[in-house]
Design a protein that fits this description.
Blueprint (H helix, E strand, L loop, with lengths): L3 H8 L21 E5 L2 E4 L4 E4 L14 H12 L9 H13 L5 E5 L2 H16 L3 E5 L12 E2 L9 E2 L6 H4 L2 E4 L4 H11 L3 E6 L13 H13 L3 E6 L10 H5 L6 E4 L10 E5 L1 H4 L18 H11 L4 H25 L4 E5 L2 E5 L8 H5 L3 H14 L1 E2 L8 E2 L6 H17 L1
Parallel strand pairs: 3-15, 5-8, 5-9, 9-10, 10-11
Antiparallel strand pairs: 1-2, 2-3, 4-12, 6-7, 11-12, 13-14, 14-16
Helix pairs in contact: 2-10, 3-10, 6-7, 11-14, 13-14
Bound molecules: 4'-deoxy-4'-aminopyridoxal-5'-phosphate.
Amino acid sequence: MPSFFEHAQQILVGGVNSPVRMFTAVGGTPPFITHGKGPCVWDREEKKYIDYVCSWGAIILGHADQKTVDAVISAAQKGLSFGMPTESEVLLAEKIQQAMPAMEKIRLVSSGTEATMTAIRLARGHTQRDNIIKFEGCYHGHADPLLVAAGSGALTFGRPNSAGVPESVARHTLVLPYNDAKALQKAFSEYGSTIAAVIVEPIAGNMNMILPKKAFLDALHEETRRHHALLIVDEVMSGFRVALGGATALYKLEPDLLTLGKVIGGGMPLAALGGKKAIMDNLAPLGPVYQAGTLSGNPVAVAAGLAVLEQLTPRFYENLASKSKCLTEGLTEMARQAGVPFCAASLGGMMGFYFSKTPPESFQEAKAMDLERFRRFFHAMLEKGVHLPPSLFEASFITSAHDDHAIDETMGMAESALRLL
Ligand code: PMP
């Protein structure tokens, strides 16, 4: 009898609908999830896992949060989509803006990819420049200008990071090392007048979790301002995840454009971009930069987003941060006792588990972590009933539903898993 995973691979490419779900980085067979509640998910064999994937950060109140589910049901009963404006879209945008005042004007879209893709187009339209800067190891979704790897020299423009991305598109993206203020200054001194925007994950969550250095954040502001380029802060992951106002509030960032996704949709397809009014008003229908969406501001997704955001307070994030701190500190101590080179960091509901002696500060350092050890740890944990993100290059997530019991259970399982390494 073929396994369900084999069966799935007959019809879905790789058996999945997004690459990381195939477990390529860790090997083995992904469990197929049937349902979730609170901190846990269950698979087809009814095996329970304490979940630290949390829909890659979208779930912050635990699975099937009752208020969110009720809001979704109530919205669905009134109609699934209209393609006409609704009041709740305005309410959600206002709710987002309260926490993120840098978003003077907002456009709701359906995925993080759409948000960043539009932000890039808008920055190009607004500045009438074509080139952009991104950082190695940062992921901003899969739009062509962002699927670009560093060029062959330190300051050469990029090359496609995926088949199907034209060289002529990649040529407009300069890829620089994360956290490297000097490289940014150098790039601006050479190409400043051609740069439309710099896009950055203010806390990098797509190469495990890498915290930004102050000098790097300062240089982002100084260089973009000096050269009249836009600063696009991509908070699709960190927004409403690390703090109520995201990394923008934590680090007092001043983005020209800001992108959100994940948490603001509460597990439904919803994302947003926003920023300075004078820039945002370049979007259609007011301005010449085109963007549209049949399902943009979908009423069911908006209802989910509103139900989640209404429950988020500064106090909520204090509690969340104490949970993630308890787990990261506990694991670090256990690893020390087991003699495993390991360290960890957390901010709000986002965590980095590093199989290295010190936290990585760049993609190069992230790549130097002990991948083999992580794989063994990942599978030992999965076997015991803890689902970590299936790649060392991903951040882990915790929700308010991860109670003391879930955290204690996780630590108990981790203790024995770490001893086996
Ligand atoms: N930006 C960041 C920082 C992300 O982490 C992601 C997805 N992980 C995206 C953009 C793309 O979002 P989506 O998967 O919703 O298209």
